[in-house]
């Protein structure tokens, strides 16, 4: 049985027990929320994770890190180092977005290396294979696409992004409305080009039942992709984005009825004043299914600092209901991220997620902050470093400018507010 089918029957799986400990939540509550569809537990039946994660309402906000090769930077070894870095910095999941050579081979290596849930976008592999054979996007066959999805299941992938909501109707609405950026989703663009060239409906939408059969067989969670997400602030919350979301809401119920877990992907680039509205629309249209957002980025003019723009939007989105944040690195819009970009991207998203967990009163979320406050009051520098999200960097910064008095820091020195007042009180 899938995790959802087990939950519906009241059966507690090993993975439910593990995440129950992580979340300080009774197993029965875990199962109940999976059964309702307000949470998902991405675990491939053939890949029993030692470190599963539950994503959804009532649980801590999770963070995903994207890695993967490209045609211009096709070094699997570097991407494996990025997996290690992402997990070490606290990523709750990793997505392999490789478009270089040997996609299945690197996916298997990442799966063997990665102890957290693994996601992919199968249309990438299908399209890249056709291009490598000298073909064009319209040469992709429906059978080839679904065979790729099956191989992802066989390789132990836990969740897959599938852009089922990019339909002929939504493309017509997009064209009628007009956008600055049109389609910025790579998977959404592949499918839109295929549909226009072949004058046919999206096979992931038209043959959705076939997709559900494969997903159920491997218990792969469907991450229903936002192929029409806004790629700039001016395009946010437009008709095309909302129409796709309506379609995804309908497909969510069909997946649940088939015993398949679902989460919904969301924008994108969204002004701060529209973030809360976007979260509420998604939760309403998609029956409270877990919401997985990219950022959202709250300004378009910060290339090189987009991990910050995304963290601002991510914190606000998570406070208003987003459950899963896809990290954004400083390299966003500019190039493939480096190892250090991955580190900065994960930490920025972890800060946003943690800030939202505190505001949402998640059990135990503020404990670490309280411990940090106590350590700072005591001027216990070792404890402060242990409490930090990035202890390695915290220690490096402190050690880079050591004070003459080791009990304080080099900013205030003998004028330390904490130490001075404590001496008077004592």
Protein model, in words:
The protein is built from 19 helices and 10 strands. It has helices at 3-8, 14-23, 27-36, 76-88, 103-113, 122-132, 142-154, 168-177, 186-198, 203-206, 208-218, 239-257, 272-285, 306-319, 339-359, 367-377, 381-387, 391-400, 417-425; strands spanning 39-40, 55-56, 62-67, 93-96, 118-120, 159-162, 221-224, 262-266, 291-294, 324-326. It has an 8-stranded parallel β-barrel with strand order 3-4-5-6-7-8-9-10, surrounded by 6 helices. Strands 1-2 form a two-stranded antiparallel ribbon. Helix 14 links the parallel strand 9 (291-294) and strand 10.
In short:
The protein has 426 residues and is of the alpha/beta class.
Chart the SSEs and their pairings.
Blueprint: H1 3-8, H2 14-23, H3 27-36, E1 39-40, E2 55-56, E3 62-67, H4 76-88, E4 93-96, H5 103-113, E5 118-120, H6 122-132, H7 142-154, E6 159-162, H8 168-177, H9 186-198, H10 203-206, H11 208-218, E7 221-224, H12 239-257, E8 262-266, H13 272-285, E9 291-294, H14 306-319, E10 324-326, H15 339-359, H16 367-377, H17 381-387, H18 391-400, H19 417-425
Parallel strand pairs: 3-4, 3-10, 4-5, 5-6, 6-7, 7-8, 8-9, 9-10
Antiparallel strand pairs: 1-2
Helix pairs in contact: 4-5, 4-15, 6-7, 7-11, 8-12, 14-15, 16-17, 17-18
């Amino acid at each position: 049985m899938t995790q959802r089918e087990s939950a519906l029957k009241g059966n507690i799986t090993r993975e439910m027990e593990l995440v129950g400990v992580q979340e300080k939540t009774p197993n029965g509550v875990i199962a109940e929320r999976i059964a309702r569809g307000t949470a998902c537990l991405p675990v491939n039946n053939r890949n029993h994770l030692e470190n599963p994660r539950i994503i959804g309402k009532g649980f801590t906000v999770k963070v995903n890190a994207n890695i993967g090769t490209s045609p211009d930077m096709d070094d699997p070894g570097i991407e494996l180092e990025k997996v290690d870095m992402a997990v070490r910095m606290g990523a709750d999941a990793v997505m392999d977005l490789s478009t270089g050579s040997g996609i299945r081979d690197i996916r298997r290596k990442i799966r063997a290396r990665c102890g957290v849930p693994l996601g992919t976008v199968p249309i990438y592999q299908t399209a890249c294979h056709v291009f490598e054979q000298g073909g064009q996007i319209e040469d992709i066959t429906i059978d080839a696409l679904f065979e790729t999805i099956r191989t992802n299941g066989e390789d132990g992938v836990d969740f897959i992004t599938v852009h089922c909501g990019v339909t002929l109707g939504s493309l017509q609405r997009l064209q009628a409305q007009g956008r600055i950026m049109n389609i910025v989703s790579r998977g959404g663009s592949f499918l839109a080009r295929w549909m226009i060239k072949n004058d046919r409906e999206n096979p992931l939408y038209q043959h959705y039942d076939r997709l559900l059969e494969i997903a159920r067989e491997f218990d792969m969670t469907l991450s229903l992709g936002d192929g029409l997400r806004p790629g700039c602030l001016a395009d946010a919350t437009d008709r095309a984005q909302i129409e796709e979301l309506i379609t995804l809401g309908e497909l969510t119920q069909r997946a649940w009825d088939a015993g398949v877990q679902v989460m919904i992907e969301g924008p994108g680039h969204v002004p701060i004043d529209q973030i809360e509205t976007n979260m509420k629309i998604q939760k309403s249209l998609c029956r409270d299914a877990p919401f997985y957002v990219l950022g959202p980025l709250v300004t378009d003019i910060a290339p090189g600092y987009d991990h910050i723009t995304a963290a601002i939007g991510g914190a606000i989105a998570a406070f208003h209901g987003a459950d899963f944040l896809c990290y954004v690195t400083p390299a966003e819009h500019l190039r493939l991220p480096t190892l250090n970009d991955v580190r900065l991207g994960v930490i920025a998203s972890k800060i946003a997620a943690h800030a939202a967990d505190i505001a949402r009163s998640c059990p135990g979320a503020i404990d670490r902050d309280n411990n940090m406050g106590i350590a700072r009051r005591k001027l216990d520098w070792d404890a402060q470093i242990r409490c930090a999200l990035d202890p390695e960097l915290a220690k490096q910064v402190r050690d880079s400018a050591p004070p003459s008095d080791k009990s304080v820091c080099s900013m205030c020195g003998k004028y330390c507010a904490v130490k001075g007042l404590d001496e008077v009180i004592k």
